[in-house]
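Per-residue structure
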Amino acid sequence: MNEEGEPELGRRDRKKAATRRALLQTASRMFAEHGYQNTTVKDIATKAGVTERTFFRYFPSKEDLIFTEILDLVPLLRREIPRRPADEPPLTAVLNGLLAAAGELDGGLAILFVGAPPRALSTGTGRTRVLWDFEGAIAEALAERQPDEDGLRAQVLARVSVAVIRSALIAYADQDAEIPDRRSVEDFAAVLREAFETVRDAV
């Protein structure tokens, strides 16, 4: 027990959670300000006030910061999509649910998308779970929101949504290469909305 009568283990857990949150928030800011490629693990650790060794106790690599946040997003996304108004089209519900869920993350939209490399939602070793969990959460949420709809439709819409997000990532990365200072969350959100509108207009 500590001086406040709280269990010592609880205090250690809170300290670990605070360190993890600091690393995620610091990475978010640095990715947005300097870009993912131009930010090193050492930069993040130094700015967060910890050693590189401490960083690696929480995250195996810089890329795992992105994967961690995407996986943290899954239960939030699963919760937010069914909450969307019944009259919203499915893809609109996914977009708005995604923006609402990302706002609750330590890194917010920035660490997920402004800083994330486009391959963060691609297939490959170490990424399969991220992709499947992300798609699965959207499919389950859409099925819950419209229980009378065919399950295949929910799965198709989920995979279309992930493809739209990846397309927005790639488009934003291309713009960022042409305009180095263009790294704001608001700019990416605009690209994301445009990408979803493109699909809605096409169906």
Notes: The mean pLDDT is 80.
